[in-house]
Amino acid sequence: MKEQLARLWSLQSLDTILASAKKRLLAIPEDIAAAERALADADKKKKTALAEIEASRLARKKREGDIAANEAEILKFSGQLAQVKTNEQYKALEHEIEHLRTKTGTIEDEILGLLERDEELAGELVAAEKAVAAAVTGLEKTRIEAAEEEKALKAESEHLTEKRTAAAATIDKAVLAKYESIRKADGTIAMSRLVRDACETCYRQVPDQRQIEVRQAKNLVTCEGCGRILYQEDPE
User: Fold this and answer.
1) Domains, the chain, ordered by start
2) What is the C-alpha separation between 62 and 68, in angstroms, rounded?
3) What does pTM read for this prediction?
4) DSSP letter assigned to residue 195
């Protein structure tokens, strides 16, 4: 049984490496998806910056139109000043002209604010464009590396599977069945070393008699805590 346990331990090493390779294979699509999300986020920020720049342009155009309309009104009222016959009419026109000039001043301030914001938006657009370019490069790199890694992992997995098949063939069927049953139920490993007086995996203390049985390696001895097969690499 000592030899069978040693072979099981070697089989578990292969299974651990295989599981790691399979886990990494499953993670590769997520790596690509993460790079695609990064590009989508960068592109969204670029589109947002472009949309804000266009909105600012339209707002400026509208306010410039408002200034032109005010100036036309001021010109019209100024031309009427010489035509009025009463002081009250004259003052009323002056009041309208002053009001329009005040409105124009306010609009000009708004336009200055929009121009300042345009400068900020231009900077944001440059940054967004750089981010998009970096994300495109990153995605291309990720896809290339992912393809290479996937190819290597599949080749490694195929090689390890062949080695596992050969290794499993050297183990007693009943012993192998017990190992496989525990491994599938647990989803990770089926064996655990006995370290001092405890299971290395769950840290459950192993009774003295069971420790002796593990070291003698005459039968399969499982941990009372996690149910894994206990093994001592250098049994007495």
Assistant:
1) 6-171 (1.10.287.1490), 175-231 (no CATH)
2) 10
3) 0.71
4) E
